[in-house]
Amino acid sequence: xxxxxxxxxxxxxxxxxxxxxxxxxxxxxxxxxxxxxxxxxxxxxxxxxxxxxxxxxxxxxxxxxxxxxxxxxxxxxxxxxxxxxxxxxxxxxxxxxxxxxxxxxxxxxxxxxxxxxxxxxxxxxxxxxxxxxxxxxxxxxxxxxxxxxxxxxxxxxxxxxxxxxxxxxxxxxxxxxxxxxxxxxxxxxxxxxxxxxxxxxxxxxxxxxxxxxxxxxxxxxxxxxxxxxxxxxxxxxxxxxxxxxxxxxxxxxxxxxxxxxxxxxxxxxxxxxxxxxxxxxxxxxxxxxxxxxxxxxxxxxxxxxxxxxxxxxxxxxxxxxxxxxxxxxxxxxxxxxxxxx
Length: 341
Ligand SMILES: NC(=O)c1ccc[n+]([C@@H]2O[C@H](COP(=O)([O-])OP(=O)(O)OC[C@H]3O[C@@H](n4cnc5c(N)ncnc54)[C@H](O)[C@@H]3O)[C@@H](O)[C@H]2O)c1
What we know:
Elements lengths: L1 E6 L3 H11 L4 E7 L3 H5 L22 E3 L2 H5 L6 E4 L3 H13 L3 E5 L6 H13 L4 E4 L8 H10 L5 E11 L4 H4 L1 H4 L1 H5 L2 H11 L4 E7 L8 E7 L8 E10 L5 E9 L3 E5 L6 E5 L2 E4 L7 H15 L8 H20 L9
Helix pairs in contact: 1-11, 4-5, 5-12, 10-12
This protein binds nicotinamide-adenine-dinucleotide.
């Protein structure tokens, strides 16, 4: 049995509990939340994707802590899963690593690149499994795209566009720019991370954006510039939560290869389609959400005693640094080189 402790019983804590609850080799040994109603199960957070955040694990025997650090000190917890607010990620991950636990930490790794890189250095010295929850690297359809790019299945990528836009999720944390980092860090980082996974860190970014609901950037459009001839000529991503209430949640990509165009739309039917020479074919995807595949991969590393390859803490730190460059580009109005410490 893998003894897991989940810190933070909000939307993501409940999403992770769904995955643990579906496995028969996981015992959710402990949970923690400073909100007493969430800790007792009286109050539950909802998800932004249908079927998400049901909190589907049996917690009847779980120890309940009213502070996350107390869970980290529990000797019977082997894996600490950090689903806290962003500004707390690095401090709790650091404490859990120092306590000798395996750690899964939600994205984004930290509000600032410097803090994120310091955590990456610590994680690299740990003999335990430490993984950031960059879920798009595990999302059905997005993993298909990464493989198609790597294999050059349809030739070279000429242009890649990513889009993730919604109305504001609400709640104090997501309105507090110092804690959540605005949409540019909280939401758009998913696409920044996926882009650097597919094409590497860009040489420069050129971004436009605005603030509306937080004191950070709530809607951004970025053009990622590469020097290499192998990189696509055009890579862009749009991310924002400044749309009017009722807009819903849109998650999309359009990628133009030499010999095919791939279109993903979370709300589409089919979700992923491939257009070639006048024909459109649906692409069959694995069941489930990226969260499930991500946690299955993480637990596979824990059980197999292997360091994660698909995503590292350093990768997540690089994504924070690229987002920082994007924010600077919005402020300064010109292209910015990411500082990859
Ligand atoms: N991977 C994804 O797709 C994805 C999606 C949404 C959110 N997130 C990230 O997950 C994190 C959490 O987001 P959320 O929407 O679940 O937030 P949330 O507010 O719903 O949940 C966070 C919980 O942490 C609790 N908490 C705060 N301080 C604590 C402490 N010291 N000890 C114990 N509990 C404490 C809060 O009471 C709250 O219940 C954020 O960093 C967010 O960016 C990731």
